Amino acid sequence: MKKEEKSQIIDSLVEKINANNKIYLADCSSLTVEKVNQFRRSCFEKNISVTVVKNSLLKKALERADDSRLTDLIPALKGATAIMFTEVGNAPAKLIKQFRAKNDRPLLKGAFVEENIYLGDDQLDTLANIKSKNELIADVVALLQSPAQRVVSALQNKAEKDAA
Length: 164
Known about the structure:
The protein is of the alpha+beta class. 52% of the residues lie in helices and 16% in strands. Helix 1 packs across helix 3 (55-64).
């Protein structure tokens, strides 16, 4: 690969990294081509972008990124690395857990989610349990509706008793 091509790849990675605040690094090595294709298809269905990159290029891109905290992911760059971008913070972690129910890979190397760094495969459960923005909104709406529903229900019961 020529220097110009490497520079273009690094610039493209920096642009993607700066545009996303939910980044996962995974190790998909030792998966068969068929399994990798299944994993990519699953990612596509969940709107997760997956790209396999060279560690040296990704390291340079992380160093050039706007957020200096991303350099904390550099120690995770060993072996084959797939970088995943998503809008939903817990979607890749859930997908990896689901895929690993039948396979031994992919392994989580690291992640940058909600402005926090997570290193190591042992963080997979923690990441899978992070609630997305929509899940949090649904929880708040449910909490707000519960007391109101009880008041309405009590008023309806009272009205029914008075009518009887």
